[in-house]
What does this fold into?
Amino acid sequence: MLKKISNIGDCGITCDFGDEVSKKTNKEVIKLFNFIQESVKSKKIKGILNYTPSYNKLIINFDLGEVKSKEVIEFIKNSDYSKTTLSKTNKLVEIPICYDEEFALDIKRLEQKTKLNFKEIAKEHLNTEFFVYMIGFVPGQPFLGDLNKNLYHDRLDTPRVKINKGSVGIVEKFCTIYTFDSPGGWNIIGKTPLDLFNINKKDTSMLSPGDTVKFKSITKKELLSFKNE
Amino acid sequence: MNNYFKTLRPGVNSTFQDLGRFGLQHLGIVPSGCMDKSLFFLSNKLVGNKFSEGTLEFAYQGPLLELVGESALVSISGKVNFNIINKNGETKQGISNESFVVSDGDKIDILSTINSVYGYFSIFGGFKLKETKGSISTLVRAKIGPNNGDKLKSEEKIFFNKSSPGFKTKKFDFDFDKDNTIRAMKGLQFDYFSKKSQEDFFSKEYKITRLTDRMGMRLEGEKLENMVNKNIKSEGITKGSIQIPGDGQPIVLLSDHPTIGGYPKIANVITADYDKLVQKTPGSKIKFKLVDLVVAENLFQDYIKKINIS
It folds into this structure.
């Protein structure tokens, strides 16, 4: 439930849904996010520039020349967004992953921590139906959850300077996919050849907050011959 | 015939920018756009363009460009030291904030910004640039925008639309606000900081360090003490937010900021003072002054009046 709305400077507000990081909380965030996105498209509210959901908050930025914080807050308070459904806007996406040793950089570390072997870890990961909590930091990078408790592990103590694009990593109950070569501290378990982000496509990001993701295991050969549309 | 500028020297950080790319932050795409909106508007105004036309933004040292083709009406806004060198090699000092005509073979040598960081180069009719998701703004980190999302490079040709036959030049008086006070509102996690740090932040001087670019500005000064939690659950980021990482030194998030982040934010720079802040050079000292929403909104009205200089 929406607990509190606060200002972020003079051209932003945050809608706070409480401290819990769970699918239940995040689904509430996504409902409001979908509602705002829809309201902007159908011109029910003007001046909105961006709407950024995260685990437990939705941040809305606006053009101060067109609308003021008070009007945006009133708009949200007077609307019944709880009726917005997730299924209308959100979809299921299958993502190929190769768990080959060459790409699963942190498998030893995970085997030690989880007391599971490589195959069991991959199986757990494949069996999980992931929810897209949020996308960002860099373009198209999804934050997915929830992993089974037996796969939980901390971040690396020393982050890697470079993690290759397409690497799939896990930390605590979350899973992410690197959409650019970038530094990072997640435990890498495999790689996807799928381009999740392409600025020149109509759907720039394959995933949207609120979508569902299932991984599908592929061989190294399949990874190497994979062609993005 | 194609008219273009040939890039003989690209400059330190020259990128095409307009007002930014909106409605995509939920997919991890930050708006980007011009750092100093007042100067961006001014450079377009000087050549009679619509305010939102794409410009070439440069920082510190700008490019050296040679015109190939028909004459063009151009402008450089900011406090900029530059020369115009004609076909015969005669050099004339350029005047910023005043439009001028350049002809085939003329070179514009943008040497440096003076006691400031950013300047803008505009041409009547605009540059010929391909929009990406409704904007020509460049985000180098993610390779988004014209020029394959990269900075301007040597030998690159910058094509422009046909220029004005009229060449009516314009001139505006412009100066930077020399005051070092930056007004800010309390941030979402203001209460995370000790009473002393809350007071220090809004009273002590902070120095702008060299670790400053379009993404963020790192400050150095009295260490700020977080009493609650050094990390928060990652949340969406707004331009002008001032985050305090574990080392207690502030970072102001600027136009190319990450879309989400997990550091507590002590304050947010108000819109009216953003342009002033980004023009402060490394080594400058600034002070933050606490204001509330009503004051910030009123100051915004003054700012809008000022940048729409008639």
